[in-house]
Write a structure and sequence with these properties.
globular, Chorismate_C, isochorismate synthase, 31% strand, 10-stranded antiparallel β-sheet, Anthranilate synthase, IsoChor_synthase, 22 strands, 401 residues, 29% helix, ADC_synthase, isochorismate synthase activity, 9 helices, alpha+beta, 9-stranded antiparallel β-sheet
Length: 401
């Protein structure tokens, strides 16, 4: 039997109030477990070099030191980039406020209007160049060097005035209440203003609560339609697609393999289900486990799982090399992870997709698509275009190519 989950501080705040209280520099994480808003810096988590447990070991040391110093509620929050040498921004906040996931009776939140100004848009790379990259990847797959690789492209949008970060986060959070809404400060040396990673991710990398571990990989996607009949047809096509089912199996099998090395029990569905966001339909598998060693925290689990084939590929080393060779821009925090872990090892980490990095007047948005045998370059361009819509709608920009 699983041991009971440790007692948490009782939520004391209204979820809408916490969203309204967010300011750039704060950390916000909203999920079915509730809303968390963290402010101030008690101490930072060193960036490396990592030990065998990766950033989970450094976080555990920081949490123990914060508790010894009298911190009443130590927790590590922040974000980690995609690449092995990518930047990460992790710290123990000075103050953490929580709100219950139960929104019954919660005060309504005003939906701010989009900025409404003219935006300059730069494609990185152009859609036709991205399609050529897909063809290159398909050649590697045909040669047997890869089974899958996820290729991303970016849009860099520049506004005449500074971007209202809190308004953008609020619009993202309210547009899709089921998504994992997040914001983390990722300011780097040389930035002209604070830099914020924010988004509304549909994908849980991993959570731990007591002995219970949950991962929910997504792979295999199709754009959502405004027409209900067309949506039913698209869902049926996604379920019947051998290409999408094979792509999803690569991801789910890898997650199960990693968790079996860390859990006493692992349970995975035989077939994926279809879940929807405001812009996409995805094949989804909710995989559960029971932790074998309580010293293995949520961040240890996230480090072990990252990157899943949902954002990288199979095999991982070859896929990472292909991404580095084909993608013209460094991903930064896109397709990395963001979340939190507490002193008991509980926590929640989500995949940083449907996300953007905002700095002063610039918003940098990424979207990716999984390339496997049978992928069509034009269809992959269309998939990335559909995935951009989550952020573009929040910004108030019409769809771009």
């Amino acid at each position: 039997m699983s041991s009971p989950a440790p007692v948490r501080p009782s939520p004391e705040h209204d979820p809408g109030d916490l969203l309204a209280a967010y300011l750039p520099g704060s950390f916000l994480h909203r999920s079915a477990r509730g809303t968390l808003l963290a402010d101030g810096v008690h101490c930072t988590v060193p960036s490396g070099p990592d030990g065998p447990g990766g950033p989970g070991d450094a976080a555990a040391v920081a949490l123990a030191e914060a508790a010894a110093a009298g911190h009443p509620d130590p927790m590590v929050v922040g974000a980690i980039g995609f690449a092995p040498d990518a930047p990460r921004s992790l710290h123990v906040p000075a103050l953490v406020r929580r709100a219950s996931p139960d929104t019954a009776g919660a005060r309504p939140v005003r939906v701010p209007e989009p900025p409404g100004q003219d935006w300059a848009v730069r494609h990185v790379p152009a859609p036709e160049v991205y399609a050529d990259g897909v063809r290159t990847a398909l050649g590697m797959i045909g040669e047997g060097r890869l089974e899958k690789v996820v290729l991303a492209r970016a849009l860099e949008l520049t506004s005449p005035t500074p971007v209202p970060v809190r308004d953008l986060l609020t619009r993202l959070a309210l547009a899709d209440p089921a998504a994992y809404a997040f914001a983390a400060d990722v300011t780097a040396p040389g930035d002209p203003a604070p830099r914020t990673l924010l988004g509304a991710s549909p994908e849980l990398l991993v959570s731990r609560e007591g002995d219970t571990v949950v991962a929910n990989p997504l792979a295999g996607s199709i754009p959502r339609s405004a027409d209900p009949a067309e949506n039913r047809a698209r869902i049926a096509a996604l379920r019947a697609s051998a290409k999408d089912q094979a792509e999803h199996a690569l991801v789910a099998d890898r997650v199960v393999e990693v968790l079996r090395g860390l859990c006493a029990e692992v349970d995975a569905p035989v077939e994926p289900e279809v879940i929807g966001t405001a812009t996409m339909w995805h094949l989804s598998s909710r995989i559960t486990g029971r932790i074998a060693d309580r010293s293995v925290s949520a961040l240890h689990l996230a480090h072990a799982l990252h990157p899943t084939p949902a954002v990288c590929g199979v095999p991982v080393p070859a896929a990472r090399a292909a991404i580095g060779a084909i993608e013209p821009a460094d991903r930064g925090y896109y397709s990395g992870m963001t979340g939190w872990v507490d002193a008991d090892g509980d926590g929640e980490w989500v995949v940083a997709i449907r996300s953007a990095e905002v700095c002063d007047r610039t918003v940098r948005v990424f979207a990716g698509a999984g390339i496997v045998a049978g992928s069509d370059p034009d269809a992959e361009v269309a998939e990335t275009r559909a995935k951009f819509r989550t952020l573009l709608r929040a910004i108030g920009v019409e769809a771009v190519a």
